[in-house]
Design a protein that fits this description.
The complex is a heterodimer of chains A (314) and B (266).
Chain A (H helix, E strand, L loop, with lengths): L6 E3 L2 E3 L3 E3 L21 E7 L12 E4 L2 E4 L7 H16 L3 E5 L4 H12 L4 E7 L10 H4 L2 H14 L4 E4 L7 H10 L5 E3 L3 E4 L1 E2 L4 E2 L5 E5 L4 H14 L4 E4 L5 H10 L3 E4 L1 H5 L3 H15 L25
Parallel strand pairs in A: 3-4, 3-16, 4-7, 7-8, 8-9, 10-15, 15-16
Antiparallel strand pairs in A: 1-2, 5-6, 6-14, 11-14, 12-13
Helix pairs in contact in A: 2-4, 4-5, 5-6, 6-7, 7-9
Chain B lengths: L1 E11 L4 E7 L1 H6 L5 E5 L10 E4 L2 E5 L2 E10 L3 H8 L5 E8 L11 E7 L6 H11 L2 E8 L8 H6 L3 E6 L6 E2 L3 H10 L6 E6 L2 H13 L4 E4 L15 E4 L7 E4 L6 E3 L6
Parallel strand pairs in B: 8-9, 8-12, 9-10, 10-11, 12-13
Antiparallel strand pairs in B: 1-2, 1-7, 2-6, 3-4, 3-7, 5-6, 13-16, 14-15
The chains are: A alpha/beta (314), B alpha/beta (266).
The structure holds flavin mononucleotide (FMN).
The site of flavin mononucleotide (FMN) has 26 residues of chain A, from strand 4 and helix 8.
Chain lengths: 314, 266
């Protein structure tokens, strides 16, 4: 049986559903010596502003139970240097590049979208309206229905690239935000970004991060993220890219059954940069075992029928 | 290169220091002095992330590299697992990573400055210097006499030792920068001396400042909290001086861990 792992996200076809999560894979080029980055469904690069940013002072991360907090503060080289310094290598590698864009105003998102639309090798735009680590812009859009709709519709008008707003879980009702994104013309949504959190050193009574608060990621957040993907699946029709704590093929499958067409992996890539072929192999063997030919037969197929009593022969 | 390295031996040097010998021939073959590996202790979700460790020794069997050893000090859950590791256990080990020390050539001299577990990168550096015939000296500071390790090995490599302890139980009492500064004062201005340092950051800052004050170049190996070791996460940044004046954060995993002492905005 020939199985296909390809997925469609708007006009974009990914060869498989595994995408490196933004901020957890540098600009992609850092990993080209470690794995074949073209073997991934896609690479979401580190969040980019129009200009360079220094980010927060260290310490920027701290480990927590089954997870980590980060407050990097979106340090980055800015879109122009990204295009001139990183895109040539990404193009040469054949990577499917999804650029994660950040702005403090709608105008900045639009400007970034315009600039990137003309760049060969940029396959999609992920709108970061969900970074919990910067005060201005970003998450303030992602926390309101209007803010989300305004950014998405403005970017939609400025580009023909697939537009994928990335949603924050730090809201009361994520599915209404997803709906607002869909109605404003998003091709897909990705969720979730990190959960706003903090950790304190009790001996010194100091925050463990220089920014005091940061975003929680890793296996600790997975059940909440799965629930959010499931809720959004009930509400919207556009594809969902799910993430939050995926560290094994089963974790990825869980998101897909809940309704994610593709998944991203962030924190687990820090622990095991060679995780990608393992995830892919695990998904392939699951599909073979369950006689599935395409991912459509899997995505959003949560079985909520009443459970039949199992026949246990003793 | 990521290998599930078998623990060949685990030598407890004290109640919190240990040397872990790992079977990792390819990492051993490629390792350069000052490089590090990212180690995952245990296979659980806690501790979740890997930790960086300088490569302490390259282990050889008949001049064939068979692995590397790590010098570890027990300070948290990861290092506790490493302290308790048993021969035969497997430890995930990614490397070698990072920019190595730039070796000085004869007739230059190498002065290595180590604080505590900061001794780690100097065993391989001393070996490399020995091969090229560079005269070398190790300034090594610890809390107490029984926390000064591996001295014989350095002596066998022809390294002059200058020891300090905080309690005065061996060598000079006080900080390791005391004898360093004393010697710099007396060294002829036309002699080439390269200073290498690894240890707590305040010590590195002090060494860099002293080196600059005496017009000597220095290379320091920093240890920042690292997430991935590959440049993926931007956690381990360190501020570097720029001509514009405002420091710029660079990733110490790929731009370092070795930096010129005078380029860091301490
Ligand atoms: C160190 C770090 C940096 C991140 N930077 C970004 C970023 O620049 N843009 C973004 O949209 N998300 C960023 N994220 C969020 C991740 O892309 C992802 O949404 C989140 O970590 C949950 O997935 P995970 O549990 O697999 O890591 C970052 C996460 C981490 C841990």
């Amino acid at each position: 049986m020939v199985t296909s792992l390809s997925v469609r996200i708007g006009s974009l076809t990914l060869k498989n559903p595994l995408i490196a999560a933004s901020g957890c894979f540098g600009y992609g080029t850092e990993y080209s010596g470690v794995i074949d980055i073209a073997s991934l469904g896609g690479v979401a690069v580190k969040g980019l502003f129009l200009t360079e940013r220094e980010g927060h002072p260290p310490p920027r991360i701290v480990e927590t139970p089954a997870g980590m907090l980060n407050a990097i503060g979106l340090q980055g080289i800015g879109v122009h240097r990204f295009i001139s310094e990183k895109m040539p290598e990404l193009r040469a590698c054949g990577a499917v590049v999804i650029v994660n864009i950040c702005g403090t105003t709608i105008h900045e998102y639009v400007e970034l979208a315009r600039i990137l639309s003309d760049v060969e090798g940029v396959h999609a735009l992920e709108l970061n309206i969900s970074c919990p680590n910067i005060k201005e812009g970003g998450i303030t859009f992602g926390c309101s229905l209007h803010g989300t709709a305004d950014v998405v519709s403005a970017v939609r008008k400025a580009t023909t690239l697939p537009v994928i707003p990335k949603l924050t879980p730090n809201v009361t009702d994520i599915k209404s935000i997803a709906k607002a994104a869909e109605e404003a013309g998003a091709d897909a949504v990705s969720l979730v970004n990190t959960f706003l959190a903090m950790a304190i050193d009790v001996e010194t009574r100091r925050p463990r991060l220089s920014n005091i608060v940061g975003g929680l990621s890793g296996p600790a957040i997975r059940p909440i993220a799965v629930r959010m993907v499931y809720e959004c699946r009930q509400t919207i029709r556009i594809p969902i890219i799910g993430m939050g704590g995926i560290a094994s093929a089963d974790d990825a499958l869980e998101f897909m059954i809940a309704g994610a067409s593709a998944v991203q992996v962030g924190t687990a890539n820090f622990v095991d940069p060679l995780i990608w072929p393992k995830l892919l192999g695990g998904i392939e063997s699951y599909m073979a075992r369950h006689h599935l030919k395409t991912l459509d037969e899997l995505v959003g197929t949560l079985d909520t029928n009443a459970r039949e009593k199992e026949w246990i022969s003793s | 290169m990521d290998v599930a390295a078998e623990v060949l031996s685990n030598t407890h040097l004290s109640s919190d220091y240990n040397v872990l010998a790992l079977a990792a021939p390819e990492i051993g073959r490629q390792a350069l002095p000052g490089q590090f590996v990212m180690v995952k202790s245990g296979d659980r979700l806690e501790p979740l992330l890997r930790r960086p460790f300088s490569i302490f020794e390259v282990l050889r069997d008949d001049s064939q590299a068979i692995g590397v050893s790590l010098l570890s000090k027990r300070i948290g859950p990861s290092t506790t697992l490493l302290y308790e590791a048993k021969p035969g256990d497997r430890i995930q080990c990614l490397g070698p990573l990072g920019q190595p020390f730039v070796p000085v050539a004869p007739p230059g001299e190498a002065w290595m400055v180590a604080g505590g577990v900061g001794l780690a990168p100097f065993a391989t550096l001393a070996e490399a210097l020995r091969i090229t015939g560079v005269k070398s000296k190790l300034y090594y500071g610890a809390r107490r006499a029984d926390e000064l390790f591996h001295l014989d090995a350095f002596q066998r490599l022809g390294v002059d030792l200058e020891l300090t302890t905080e309690d005065g139980s061996r060598g000079t009492r006080g900080r390791v920068t005391l004898p360093l500064e004393r010697d710099l004062k007396h060294r002829a201005a036309d002699a080439t001396v390269m200073i290498y340092a690894c240890g707590p950051e305040p010590m590195l800052a002090a060494v860099a400042a002293i080196a600059s004050a005496y017009g000597r170049p220095s290379q320091v190996s920093v240890e920042r909290v690292m997430g991935c070791g590959l440049g993926g996460c931007y956690s381990c940044v360190i501020p570097i001086k720029t001509p514009q004046g405002k420091p710029h954060h660079v990733r110490s995993c790929i731009a370092g861990p070795v930096f010129r002492g005078d380029e860091i905005a301490w």
